[in-house]
Amino acid sequence: MTASVVSVLVSASVVLAGAPACALVPDGGVGADVRREVHRADADSVLAISIDGMSVAAVRELGPKKLPHLYRFMRAGASTMNARTEHEMTVTLPNHTGMVTGRRIDAATGGHGVTWNDDRLTPRTVQEAAGHDVASVFTAVDAAGGSTAMFAAKTKFSLWQRSWPDAIDRATIDLDNSRLVDQLIADLDVDRDFRFLHLSLPDAAGHAHGWMSKPYLRAVRQSDALVGRVVKAVNSDPARRAGTTILLTSDHGGHGPSHSNPSLLDDYCIVFMARGSAVDRGVDLYAVNPDYKNPGTRRTTYATKRQPVRNGMIANLALDLLDLPAVEGSELDADLSLRLTAP
Fold first, then answer.
1. Is 30 or 332 the better-scoring residue by pLDDT?
2. Going by C-beta distance under 8 Å and a sequence separation of 6 or more, which residues neighbour residue 85?
3. Would the N or C end of the chain have less CB density within 10 A of its end CB?
4. Beta bridge partners of 78
């Protein structure tokens, strides 16, 4: 497929038109009061950003002078540079599918079952891969009458369109990262509750030239600039700035020419960040989440009692910010306990 734009607009049965996301919670909904204690303010909209292949080593080496937007992002919100990928695999499509389903990968133990990382059409959907129904952040928002969109820089993300066609109101796939961000920024004028943005530049440079090579570090800097454009666009409108929370993570890091070794620290250690009106400024995620444990250099299994922050928590964290229940059948942050503010 060429780098041309592939856009699919799916009509929703019910679209939330301008109402705040907190209005989606039914009166007397279980856990609503608890969630309002966790977050001092609810979000009208959540934007999740994944920077494909961005390693923690690169973020540390480049520092605040060369990555001004990412470091400003961290200072403005809650973050850690010691989050974890899915335990089983450190590759793109399995980890991203975990981000939107809140599930581990292994289907035999309740995971989403997506173990491939290409454009294959068999299995055709996440549900076929798992052997049972698999819900997502898209279906959870749609069920509450909200609107969602995804913007991805790899064609393999068409899997999500096939899996949840009625729940994703706009699906845009464009291999040109800058043009993709242009389209997301234009979409900010549309009333949506959840958007997912995938950027691919570091991963592409890592495979072509090696992780931590000059071209790779340049790609991380380019991604930083794209994040800066997105944050600037969100903040350009006072109402949008006040009502939007932005989450940012990665699907994996990398080492040498690859990232597929799930037992290698460079591959499984990632960033996890959040900023917005529902987030305290300059806080460490582990410091405000005593139920979660900084894993140090450990890989950490799902059986560990105090889990690390994982990229698969994006789905349920977004739903918690929107005052919605967790993704049905999910595991990661299914109790909506991950907090972005100090007690």
1. 332
2. 95, 251, 252, 262, 267, 268, 270, 310, 311
3. C
4. 274, 283
Q: Is 262 exposed, middle or buried (0-12, 13-18, 19+ CB in 10 A)?
A: middle
CA dist 230 and 236 (Å) reads 10
Strand bridging mode 244-249 / 45-51: parallel
Residues 178 and 191: their CA atoms lie apart, in Å, by 22
d(CA 288, CA 340): 7
pLDDT value for 277: 87
Q: Find the largest Cα–Cα distance for the chain.
A: 55
Alpha helices (H) in 6-130, listed in sequence order: 32-38, 56-66, 68-76, 92-101, 126-130
Domains of the chain: 6-321 (3.40.720.10)
Q: What are all long-range contacts of 19-23, with beta carbons under 8 Å and residues at least 24 apart? A: 20/44, 20/243, 21/45, 21/146, 21/193, 21/321, 21/322, 21/323, 21/324, 22/322, 22/323
- pLDDT over 90 at 298, yes or no: yes
Residue 341: exposed, middle, or buried by beta-carbon count in 10 A (0-12, 13-18, 19+)? middle
Q: How far apart are CA 224 and CA 221, in angstroms?
A: 5
DSSP characters for 7-32? EEE---SS---S--GGGGSPTT-TTH
Can you give the pLDDT at residue 39? Answer: 40
